[in-house]
Amino acid sequence: MNYHARCLLCGGHLIPAVGSAATAPWRCPVCFVAFWAGELTPEARSAWRKHHRDFGPSNTDSARVVRSAVKAEMEAAAARGVSLRPDQLGLVDKATLAGLARAFPVAAGFLEKVQGAS
User: Which of 8, 19, 20, 118 could form a disulfide with 97 if both were Cys (CB 3.0 to 4.6 A apart)?
Assistant: First the structure.
């Protein structure tokens, strides 16, 4: 998935949000808003309505595409057991990575990737 880790509200850099699988994996340290990568794609950004804080009316194609991408991402996070995405491993400090398995039910296959990165 091609996406830009910049806040939709303020444009600032997003940081990884390591949490449960139900937690969006990116958060803005300025706005304190979290985003799924599916909400940060160029297509989603073009549909973003800042004043409404949404991707258009729910019956539009753009809103459906974003919801579908987020749903797939949530399912992938549930399979991993944690919100942290594979493309975020190099962005998280080693101490956090080391404690990941103690804090969350991390799937064995993803845990091997985490251990390889730490």
Answer: 118
Q: Which residues of 47-65 are buried (b: 16+ CB within 10 A; e: fewer)?
A: bbeeeeeebeeeeeebbeb
Q: Which two tokens stand for residue 97?
A: 């990575």
Q: How far, CA to CA in Å, does 36 sit from each of 11, 59, 84?
A: 15, 20, 11
pTM here is 0.91
Confidence of residue 30 (pLDDT cuts 50, 70, 90): very high
**Distance (Å, whole) CA 30 – CA 101:** 28
HEC string for 78-104: HHHCCCCCHHHHHHCCHHHHHHHHHHC
What are the Cα distances from residue 54, in Å, to 40, 45, 49, 117? 12, 10, 5, 35
Which candidate, 70, 16, 18, places its Cα nearest to that of 40?
70
